[in-house]
Amino acid sequence: MSARLDVGPPTAPANGPAPTTPGTARTRPRRHVDWGRLYTWLVLAWLFTPILFMAAFSFNDPAGKHNITWQGFTLRWYGDILAYPDLTQAMLNSVSIALLTMVGAGTLGTLLGLALGRFSFRGKQLTNLVMFSAISAPEVVLGAALLSTFLMANVTTGYWTTVIAHVMFCVSFVAITVRARVITLDPALEEAARDLGAGPFTTFRLITLPMLFPAIMAGGLLAFALSIDDYIITTFVSGDVTTFPLWVWGSTRVGIPPQVNVMGTLLFAVGVAMAVVNIVMVRRRS
Amino acid sequence: MVTTNSSTEEPAEATRRGEVAPAIGLEGVAKSYRSGSETVRAVDGIDLEIARGEFFSLLGPSGCGKTTTMRMIAGFEEPTEGVVRLSGRDVNGVPANHRDVNMVFQSYALFPHMNVAANVAFGLRRRRVPKKEIKRRVDEILDLVELGPRAEHRPSQLSGGQQQRVALARALVNEPGALLLDEPLGALDLKLRQSMQVELKRIQREVGITFVYVTHDQGEALTMSDRVAVMNGGLVEQLGTPAQIYERPATRFVADFIGTGNLLPGRVENTDGAGPYRVALGSGTTALVASLPEGAGTGTEVHLTVRPEKIRIGVEDPGGELTTIPGTVSETVYMGASTHYQVALPGGAEVIVHRQNSSDATLAATRGDRVWLSWEPHHSYALP
C-alpha cells in the first residue's frame, strides 16, 4: 500500500529501428531486440504488479472473510467504504499524522538542508552523520529507543508522540533532498537580489524559496509517503491510537476486509495525482 | 612588486573641478582571507578615485584581486582595512541592499522563475516605485537594450547575448550611482563579445552612468575604458588611460600583460641629462631609451621594453638617430593585415616585430635571413 511518488512516465530509450541503408539491401534484416525497452518494461512490471493486485482485489467479491482469491467483480466496497468505523478512524489518523509530518519535517528539513548546503559551520559533519544514521538505523531499534525516551520523559504515548516520531525519521529525507538542490543553486542569484535592494528575508521569500520549492515539495511528499504507511515505529509510540497500517495488521487474523484495498487504492491514486502535479509544476517553471 | 607613481597623473575631471565627490573612492582598501592557518591578502591596499560617468576598468589575471575589489564596492565583502566611499559617503558596514550601486554578474544571475520584465522590475519594486512608473521605466530600458518584444519570455528562452542584455537592463533601470560589471562578456563567443563591447560603450554614453568593468581581457579593457587600473597580486600596477598603459607601461608586468611586450634585459650605460639614455643589451649591441627607472645609475640592471609595431624591420642598416640592432629571423607568421616576425638578437634574446603588409613595401625576409631592427628612442623605456 506504499504510495510510490516518484513515478514518471516510462521513458523509453530512443533506439528506434536501425535505418536501412540502400547499399546493404542484400543482407537479410536481422531481428533487432531492443534490450533497453524490454528492461524498462520489466522494471515497471516489477514495481506495479503488487499495486495492480491491491487495486484489483478492491473490486473482488470474496465468498468468506478472506479477500485472497478472485471470486467476481463488484463495486460494492467503494460504496461501502466506511463500513468499519474503526478503520475509518484509523485512516483519518494516518492521513492527519502524515500531513502534520509533511509540514513539520518539510519545514525543519528545508532549514536543515539550507544550512548544510550553504554554510560551513562547527558541527556540520556531525549533523550529516546524525542525519544519515537516522536513515540507516533499523526502524525497530529507533522505535524502541523512542518509546523508552517518551517513557523516561513521562510522556504518555499517543497521537502527538507518533507525529514527533514520524517527523524525526522523515526530516533527514527532506534535508537531503533540499540540500542537493541548494548545492546546485547559483549563489549569485541571492547576491543579485541583495544587490537590487532586497533584504535577507525578502531575498529568501522571493528568490530562495521559489527556487527550492520543487525540492521541498518532493521531500514533503516523501515524508507523507513514509509516514502514512509506517508500521514499526508507530507500534512503539502510538499508545492507544490506531493508524491505518496498525489496523490492517490487527485485522489479518480475522480477515482483511476489501475496504482496506479500496483505501489503499484511493491513497495510491492521490499519491500519483500529487506526483503528477509536482512534475507539471516543475516543468512549467523551467 | 613595483607600484607606480603615475597613478595621480590624470585625476578624475569632476574631482579636479571640485564640484562633486567621485562616484567611487577607495582609500587603502585591503582584504585578507584566512585559508587554513595562512592569511591570504587578496587585495593589498588600493587607492582609487573613479569619477562620475567614467568607464573604468579593473584589468588583471585571475587571482589579482580585481573581483574582490569589485565585491567590496558592491557590499558583498567587507574590507579588512581601508574605506570604501560611494559619492563621498563612507559605506563600510552598509549591506549590499542599501548601496547605490548595481552589479551585472558573470553568470548573469537572472531569476529563472520570473520573466524578463519581472527580472528588470525587481529593483524598482523593492524601492516601492509606483506601478505605472515601473512599467514605463522597464519598457524604456528594454527598448534601450533592444529586448522590448521579449518582455514576457523566461530567461531560459533567451540566447546568451540576450540574457546578458537583460542582466544589464535589470541593473541599469535602477539608475545606480555606479554600475559594476564582473566579466560580463566572458560567457559569449568572440563575434558576439565584440559587438557587445560596442553596444556597452554606446549604452554607457547614453545613460551616463559610471561603469566599473572587471575583466582579464586586455582588448576589452583598452577598447572600452576611459581609464584602466592594471592589477596584479592584490595591487594596482598602473593606472591610466588605455593609451598610457599601452604606450608607456610602468612595470614589467604591465609591459608583458598588455599586448605583446618585448622585454630585453640590459645594463644602463649613461644617466646624463634628459635622455635618451644608452642601455647595453649584451654582445656589443646598444639601444637608446627615453626614460630610466627611478634611482637607476650606471650599471643598473634594467629591462628594455618596446612594442612590436614600433620596430621597423629591414635588410639594411637604416643608420641615423635610431636604435639599430642586427638579428636573424627565426620565425615568420603571416596574419593577413600584418606579418609577425620573431627575430633572434646576437645575445640570444628574441624580439617580436609586427609589420603592416602595405602594398608598396614588401619584405623578402624569411627564416634564417639577416635583418636590421630599428626604432625611435622615444618608443622604448627601461623598466626595473
Keywords for this entry:
heterodimer; A: 286 residues; mainly alpha; MetI-like fold; 0% strand; disordered N terminus; B: 384 residues; alpha+beta; Rossmann fold; OB fold (Dihydrolipoamide Acetyltransferase, E2P); 2 domains; six-stranded mixed beta sheet; five-stranded antiparallel beta sheet; 9 helices; 20 strands; 23% helix
In short:
The complex is a heterodimer of chains A (286) and B (384). Chain A has helices spanning 35-57, 76-79, 85-118, 124-136, 139-152, 159-184, 187-195, 200-228, 232-237, 244-251, 258-285. With 286 residues, chain A is an all-alpha fold.
Explain this structure.
The complex is a heterodimer of chains A (286) and B (384). Chain A has helices spanning 35-57, 76-79, 85-118, 124-136, 139-152, 159-184, 187-195, 200-228, 232-237, 244-251, 258-285. Chain A has 286 residues and is an all-alpha fold. Chain A is globular, with a radius of gyration of 24 Å. By secondary structure, chain B is an alpha+beta fold. In chain B, the strands form 4 sheets. Chain B has a 6-stranded mixed sheet, with helices on both faces. Chain B has a 5-stranded antiparallel sheet with strand order 13-12-11-14-20. The longest helix of chain B is centred in the middle third of the chain and has 18 residues, at 190-207. The radius of gyration of chain B is 24 Å and the shape is elongated. Chain A binds chain B through residues 186, 188-189, 191-199, 202, 206-207, 210-211, 285-286, and chain B through 74-76, 95-98, 101-103, 105-107, 109-113, 122-123, 126-127, 156, 170-171, 174.
